[in-house]
Design brief:
single chain, 3 helices, globular, six-stranded antiparallel β-barrel
Length: about 220
Amino acid sequence: MFTGIITGVGRIAALHDLGSSLSHGKRLTLEVPAGYLDDVGLGDSIAINGACMTVTSFDLAKHQFTIDISAESLNKTAGWNTVGKVNLEKALRANDRLGGHIVSGHVDGIGHVTSFVQVGESWELRILSPASMGKYLAYKGSITVNGVSLTVNTVLDLATGCEFSINLIPHTVENTALGTLQAGKLVNLEIDLIARYVERMLSNDASAATLHSPSQAGTPP
């Protein structure tokens, strides 16, 4: 479990194929800030650009750790095909502050950056999400983009998907890897956990109402 508050910016330093077919995954070596791994052990979970991954080895002297990404995860997430900066967050501890919102580290869909421009001192980020995610996006609601907990400013349903905008303050741009985004980039998206349960409960209520409604057949006028 995570909060969407980035605790470090790392870098994918190397990528290795774990096999020659599409059913094989990749092994990534990541570089992190000095001291970041001091309280990390083998098997610990770290969210990398919003995707929960397991530490398979680490080298404290080189400030590096490795993860193995399955073919399934590669198909459902973005950002693993090249070296470059990534957002990092260690798993939430029971006594930590919940500074963002509840984040599972399970990516729900891949978004497409349509615009990333500076507006005043801040930056406006616009992302086109899959149409299926549109019902979970709401004005002033929460969304996780590459592991960062953010607030939705606008929502626009289009024939090609659901476009939403986010305002990024300078601190967020400077202290996460979001500052490297540009139009055309793919990003990992995770919807608000509460929205997921609300949708499930509402769909169940509708099904129950249909199931228990009186039959119209033979009902007197």
